[in-house]
Alanine:cation symporter family protein (Salibacter halophilus), 539 residues
Amino acid sequence: MTGFTRKLLVVLLINVFAFNVGAFAEEGKNGEGTKEELTLSQKIDNKFRPVVDAIAAVLFVDPFEKLGLHDPTVRDSAGNPVINAKGEIVTHQIPLVVIWLISGAVFFTLRMKFLNIWGVKHAIALVRGVYDNPDDEGEVSHFQALTTALSATVGLGNIAGVAVAVSLGGPGASLWMVVAGLFGMTSKFVECTLGVKYRTIGFDGRVSGGPMYYLSRGLEKRNLKWLGKILAALFAVLCIGGSFGGGNMFQANQAFAQFSGEFTFMQDHGFWFGVVMAVLVGIVIIGGIRSIAKVTDKIVPVMVASYVITAIIIIGMNWANLGEGFAAIWNGAFDADALKGGFLGVLVTGFQRSAFSNEAGVGSASIAHSASKTNEPVSEGIVALLEPFIDTVVVCTMTALVLIFTGFADGGPESLEGSELTAAAFSSVFPWFKYLLIIAIVLFAFSTMISWSYYGLKSWTFLFGQSKAAIVSYKVLFLLFIIVGASSSLGAVLDFSDMMILGMAFPNILGLYFLVGEVKKDLDDYFKRIKTGEIKRFK
């Protein structure tokens, strides 16, 4: 990116900031000109709400409804609209962003001839280090790259997302989450293979890679340099916004909400909670991807293992009912009269929660995988297959079974939602689990923040260069946003930033359609060399 373009972006950012700050002075005046007292959080929230609504109108538009192909309103047997506990009409929208993510995942799976099934065995061998060559370029091992990427996806999406899907669409929604996760495995393969193939390695050995690089450099090879630059820049801007919001402020905000909800003495002390989190995150991210990987490859396995083991124990206690549990999931997935929305509502609910949970197709994971120590891009792509499998197929399925066995699949006696519903289900068997879950949520939030700090930094340096000043400025901003997120209720800002993460899927998948052909050729060549022994085993 040219120096002029960087300066232009900085000027635009400054002007946007100045506009919002100046607009605060006009905020809160009624028709008579009297001024109402608004907190800073409320002022910011009010300025971002129109932007959020505008983005939602694109990301969550239902094209089938616009074309008159289906009625999104859920109706009972008498044809009357179904009303939920909040007095709202229940609908089953088919959001554009979900269609975009799922259609891409299905296409890539067919193009790679179901690599998501037959490639898992080889992926496990790669994670075990069987093919690790100590002389390969990169910064982290296959396993560390996997855990770094997993740390950004395994978390509230699994704890809360499954509960949301099951409470809205019944047990059958979890099956469609798994189906979407299986297809999403191939999206991760394609983007992470390209991430390594088009990465750049500096003189100091530090790696930069991800959609910004394979979109710009890959499309340039196809005489589409102009399109590559546009898509790469768009992705980088969205990724930076997503790193500050969905990957940072939202995590800090939710972690504090869970922590202070159980330990009431912490209420109204979000600022200090944010300061502590910022210091801890700062200690880790100062060291770059090597430091991040050393933390995530310890935290993620422990978090996932503790959660899964507890779920397995509860499932084991209900072993006699295991068949009935799976039957409830299977029947609910295909039952036209399924809870709140019929077959279409159940399918869309499962696909939507899966897409939001594992981020397959968003492109963020390829930034972490680009740093892997390998000279074989396809090998890292195959390792990435395991992410949606662990995130969605394993963790989400176990969560769904626990909800079913404990009787909370219908929302529970108090109509709880999200992580509260999951916590209530686990705690009904083990009362102490709520404390473990609080610790897990805080750790999930912590690991997500440090991973997204890396994603955002790589996008930032792609736009503004690799200078020390650019790197330090991003890290300082990132740490400040942790404090803001923990101490504020910036609903619209958090929604806006979370939507930016979903928005990353549009430039990313569009570029993948152009590049998927070369990935298929590389895949065929890779396994040909595996069979001939050209690619050697080291263990």
About this structure: Residues 37-60+95-532 form a domain with the Amino acid/polyamine transporter I fold (CATH 1.20.1740). The longest helix spans residues 225-262. Strands lie at 200-201, 207-208. The first strand starts at residue 200 and ends at 201.
